Amino acid sequence: MKLAYWMYAGPAHIGTLRVASSFKNVHAIMHAPLGDDYFNVMRSMLERERNFTPVTASVVDRNVLARGSQEKVVDNITRKDSEENPDLIILTPTCTSSILQEDLENFVERASMDTKGDVMLADVNHYRVNELEAADRTLQQVVKFYIEKARKKGELPEGKTEKPSVNIIGISTLGFHNLHDCTELKKLMNDLGIEINAVIPEGASVHELKNLPKAWFNLVPYRELGVLSAKYLEAEFGMPYIDIAPMGVVENARCIRKIQQVVNQQGAEVDYEEFINEQTLHVSQAAWFSRSIDCQNLTGKKAVVFGDNTHAAAITKILAREMGIHVVWAGTYCKYDQDWFREQVSEYCDEVLITDDHGAIGDAIARVEPSAIFGTQMERHVGKRLNIPCGVIAAPIHIQNFPIGYKPFMGYEGTNQIADLVYNSFTLGMEDHLLEIFGGHDTKEVITKGISAESDLGWTKEGLAELNKIPGFVRGKVKRNTEKFAREKGVKDINVEVLYAAKESVGA
């Protein structure tokens, strides 16, 4: 087993909990010790929600190892049912339950005999999938559970809604800008004359799931969550689904044209070309901005992109196709879906990286030294140490990436937000000159910034003064090369002679 202090995607049970807690009046119970319920802390801190259904731990203690936990878990489920009256209780496996090798399906069957609400087990193959895969599987299982339940009772509605309608599948708690994206998607659908049949799982009731087949089509904005549910609905009811993330001017237009095709095939007569043109020219400023002198200053600059499939693919296309930026490499940590990612980005970057090893990504960034990074919070940390600016475009993320203000990534307003993020992530041309003018004043002799958090090197006053004469846009690279040279030569204090020796060693 490979140990890591950073994971791009969390363990499987976090994915299940994200889906369960997104629904209204659904209670999740982790079969795990008290202390593993840090999900509650994450949600209350990051989403800043005042009211949400907390997750419960089954409190597996040392006695369980000897006697088993069936009685305790069943009692926990029935007690929560009587106290909270949830519509559904989801029992979530964890590494603890996997180690104990207990029959959780049997626990659920036992508990269901004494509960008013529904009880189900999140069967997600816990040891083999990560947070994102588990979330996708859990949502599909919940959808299937209530569709089949309604079918047995003869409560499945027949036919479609009178007007074109859509299910938006995949909006969940702790998703990257999910709620803002949802607002933008609802606005977009309204502008297109399409009714919202349902949004799942965020804010939905499980009792509404039986109405999903009434929609004309399903929209799955995120590759990581919702595809399995959409495929299930397609197989059962012939419902078409669209999995184009409307991020950037080009993909917004492509998504809308696909919607036009899907609804017209079902009897509608719509033409969205005028709407696309109007939005591109006047609502989104990104198309205009890409032709401005400010954006043209970025043409050919090197960037790297890393994140989940949805955002890394979308940002790669926007950088290369809409802003003229050279994407040296694009990568994703979603190894389970790498074929899709490669197909999406291969023509827009020099190299594709598929890995969940944050160390390998840090090394890849250091090797190419891009002008800007677009990645997760981890790549932002790498950028801080290398003095390379980073725009955060995907989870895992920090609280700063759960903004209070309105910052969608999708829709035409999302194009503006992304363009701002990209532009402001680069050190701009005028800044190079300003950095020279306001380069530290009297503090520049004592303040130095190394690659490593614990630098073992020192700069003499004369050496640092000579370094500060180098233009700002290459100074960081010269500094890192010099420090590398000094370490190789065993030099502890870098003076002017060492600086020029390092320069000669690389043929500069």
Quick overview of this protein structure:
The protein is an alpha/beta fold. The protein has 22 helices and 15 strands. 47% of the residues lie in helices and 12% in strands.
Structure, explained:
By secondary structure, the chain is of the alpha/beta class. It folds into four domains: 12-129, 3-Layer(aba) Sandwich (Rossmann fold), CATH 3.40.50.1980; 165-244 and 249-282, Rossmann fold, CATH 3.40.50; 287-426, Nitrogenase molybdenum iron protein domain (Rossmann fold, 3-Layer(aba) Sandwich), CATH 3.40.50; 440-505, Helicase, Ruva Protein, domain 3 (Orthogonal Bundle). It contains 22 helices and 15 strands. The longest helix has 22 residues, at 131-152. The radius of gyration is 26 Å and the shape is flat. The relative contact order is 0.08.
